[in-house]
Amino acid sequence: MVGATLAVALGERGFRVALVEARAPERNWPDDSHDLRVSAITHASQAVFERLGAWPAMVAAGVTPYRAMQVWDAPGFGEIRFEAAELGEPDLGHIIENRVIQAALWGRLEALGEAVRVICPAGVSGLEPAADAGVRRLWLDGHEPLSAALVVAADGARSRVRDLAGLAVEGRPYDQTAVVATVRPAHGHGETAWQRFMADGPLALLPLGEGLFSIVWSTSSAHADELLGASDAAFGAALTQASEGRVGDIVPVGPRAAFPLRLQRATAYVLPGIALVGDAAHVIHPLAGQGVNLGILDAAALVDVLVEARSARRRPGALATLRRYERARKGENLGVQYAMDGFKRVFGNALPPVRLVRNLGLRAANDIGPLKRLFARIALGSLGDLPTLARPGG
Q1: Neighbours of 353 (CB within 10 A)
Q2: Mean pLDDT per segment of 10 residues, for the chain of length 394 residues?
Q3: pTM of the model
Q4: How far is CA 27 from CA 81, 90, 100, 363, in A?
């Protein structure tokens, strides 16, 4: 999603772009099927998609606005609720299946024609060190090699390009696995995103069309294995209990999957002729749904830097150029990573004093208007120095 966003944005701005993709995204699917992977898209990311012309196709394929967010602790009395109406906003964001985002961006790539050369399917097998102010040679499986003034690694947490470039990562696995599934609640979703913090990890219920939820249940690996192996009835009962029945009895719809969680960050985002974006640069806990949004902002920030460099006749792969991108994004991404890691630690702590403090904190945040609005604006993605593509009217 992040790489396609960047390719569309640069292609529209007259850059010569090649997109190397391992496999084309799914473009057609049965009406009654659901993607197990979804993203909570902020207003900032929506602005990017709108300005790239991809948003109408996403809306046509199905996006679900959520107008409220309910967060509570278990066990405890702490609870906070955000309402879009309180902020004068039509919604707090949208839940969108990843395949919908990918298909819409792929459609925009096709509409750009020769402005973006799509090489698919293809994998990267080698990377030549920068020999000429950032010019790199990239070897591909089954295709002629490419020479580029800038190679952008948007190939995920296990980035091949990052590893070939010798950019180190640091981090650690969490003691959690995320179980994902599509479910139907008896009471519908009410255009509300629900999240309950429990000792083993948070349960998020993200609204989808037709009254469904996409759930992300972060829990211990042993419990995740139990949930994957449980019958539909047992899985639904476990979800109903974990959500305290707030949306009624829950019934699974379709398959389940799981993936291990980890905290990871690249020690540097750039080298001459190399830049990292998205999960290739940073991986965070999914409890706030910010991962893909950070990646979209990476792409938008890199576009700003490259457009400005072209105007100033600076080479796009020069380290001085790419340092501007790194300064724009690395600090902010680290701040979000530390914040999510802190939330995970605090809400996973069962010590009574810690539990009391976090419940008092949630209650205070709910009762103090300015603080509550600040948290809501952070969730909207509308704070900070946003890249041009992500700004309202940008």
Answers
A1: 8
A2: 98 97 92 93 96 98 95 78 88 96 97 96 90 80 94 97 96 92 97 91 93 96 97 98 97 96 95 96 83 96 98 95 97 84 60 60 58 62 82 74
A3: 0.92
A4: 36, 29, 8, 45
